[in-house]
Design a protein that fits this description.
single chain; alpha/beta; Rossmann fold; 6-stranded parallel β-sheet; FTHF_cligase-like_sf
Amino acid sequence: MDARDEVLARLRAARDAGGSTSPDVPRDYRRTGAHPPGSAAAVERLTETLTDYRATVHRVPDEDAVSAAIARVLEDAGATTVVAPPGLPARWLAEVTARVRPDEPPLAVAELDRVDAVVTGAAVAIADTGTFVLDARAVDQGRRAISLVPDHHVCVVRAEAVVSSVPEALARLDPDGPLTFVSGPSATSDIELDRVEGVHGPRRLDVVLVAPM
């Protein structure tokens, strides 16, 4: 019996049983990663996987260096306007020369489309997958639209937010709210596998990683 026949046999068995029973799903998968949350090893692994996904990582030793890193990233990109969630720490933007537009009241999509970049924080980052997660209810991350419409996303990730595995990340998140998982710049491929970036989100992603050197 091949896989197709096995699936069809299970469907027939479920039909014959009236759909009243279902098998127990084993939940014995690994729930912790190879590295402790916030550890140097977890941070190094995150840097590696983010880079694999074509994000650019800027490592800074503490939050006092965040503003200069963001200002440098925006200047290098030629950004003249940037949108920020209403609760983003003001000191993160202290050295930014671009015009900062707080998303309060919420900017229209057409206005967001004219903004060069967005700066946010992150709820958690997953080292094994090169992913960070935005919680729309968090004051430093803002609503989903601001991280999807502008063409350039600058995200600040603190070391204590870095975990190794997806189960560890999910344990820190509230599934009842809107969550956005970001793994590298937005990209897709056509039938000939030609990569196209910026189709359904920012085409450029910079991560300012706050972790002791």
